[in-house]
Design brief:
This protein is of the alpha+beta class. Helices cover 24% and strands 29% of the residues. The protein is built from 9 helices and 26 strands. The strands form 7 sheets. Strands 7-10-11-12-13-14-15 form a 7-stranded parallel β-sheet, covered by helices on one side. Strands 18, 19, 20, 22, 23, 24 and 26 form a 7-stranded antiparallel β-sheet that branches. A 3-stranded antiparallel β-sheet has the order 4-1-6, with no helix packed on it. Strand 19 and strand 20 form a beta hairpin. The longest helix has 25 residues.
Length: 503
Amino acid sequence: KKYVGYIWIRGETSAAPVELAIIWGDSDADRVTYRIDSLSSEYKKYEFQLQAGADSENARLEITSAGKGFFQIGTVSLMPADNIHGMRADTIALLKELNSPIYRWPGGNFVSGYDWRDGIGDRDKRPPRKNPAWQGIEHNDFGIDEFMTFCRVVNTEPLVVVNTGLGDLQMALEELEYANGSADSPMGKLRAKNGHPEPYNVRYWGIGNEMYGNWQLGHMPLEEYVKKHNAFVAAMRKMDPQIKVVAVGNVGPWTEGMFRHCADFIDLMSEHFYVGAKKDVVEHVNQAANRVRQIAEAHRRYRREILGGREIPVALDEWNYWYGDHVFGELGTRYFVRDGLGVAKALNEFARNTDVYAMANYAQTVNVIGAIKTTKTAAAFETTGLMLVLYRHHFGHVPVVTTSQNPIIDAQAAILKDNQALAVAIVNPTGEKQRFSLQLEGAKAGDHGQAWDVAGNDPMDYNEPGKPLRVELRSREVSNGELFEVAPYSATIFQIPLTWRDN
């Protein structure tokens, strides 16, 4: 595989020559090198290309001197030559297939200690910081400009969260102006100087993250936070009246207090949930859908009892299963078929509660608790990610009232955008095949259709990056003249052509 890279280096002339080598074995043939024959006392950038001679998960980059002097490395970069603006091509391909309509950045607990200004300008001159929320170092290679580039590459909309933890209003206003201000505004000029003259026109802005929690940097009591929230929103709306703001919510006293004191300063109310593991597969699968429904029921009550009938929609901008061994680094959970089925049933539940939910952001996307997992050399969809792909590409857009006489399966239908077909999603959390027939009111089903499913032989089946996939998205043709069948431990979407009846 071909790699591209560069190094900033300076040193004494006696330190030369300096060699950079990719090494994948023990013999002299198991390496490829780039040689710098002379050094200067000032930092100089050297760009290089190297072609690895074999595949290895134990390769390394070495920088050595054959001289006797002293040298210093400012920074070094090594990436596959097929990278896309510094992002892995294999991962970007999966993200394009996932086709999410919106991404939330930069968090998450991280945002409450993040200064967005650390992540702009020359990447090689950005300050490294201790990660404010998790382990390790934040090198600030991926800031707001890189996030906007990512959104353009995968054709999605950004949701930018401002820091209401340790951050202040001035920081938020400068970030908003940097993103949306004209090129003649102070921060717009800085954006243009950094290579982005046109405003990003970010529509959705999150006002903090989980500020109700004592784990959150800058956490404060509700009675103080409502003042901070309102001040942020008032000033941000004055700067850009077109923005939509997402407030921090947490079902119970916090959300109730936010509605009582901040309703005029909220466009969407954020809610979060994570669920753990249950031994019984059906109970495990039901958890996420139950939480989706419970949050919706709570918000209907808030509309009646607090908001006087006013409807402020919910952005469920973090939700997932979260448990188990950390297989993929810090908090890196592996997901199984049973988790995927839980995600599928939750997606059905969202369709039943579209009067409440305007947005739902599965957390997270890549690695940690993400829908995609990577190694150094491979990337693959988790079972949860496959369910998101299944529904994104094959479920309908207008939910319809759906009832099932089989209490084992979870069924939800929706009409496709063109009104020419009905999508029926069936989640079967059991180890037995299930069969059903369709009865429609107001339309007639066509004779033939298509079905797609994600299924496992075992509820604990999973995918491993770089190894043959055990769980995949499959498709088949179906006929309406017979019973529809779904596999054990599966989520299936049927698309059936419709002929509308005259009323």
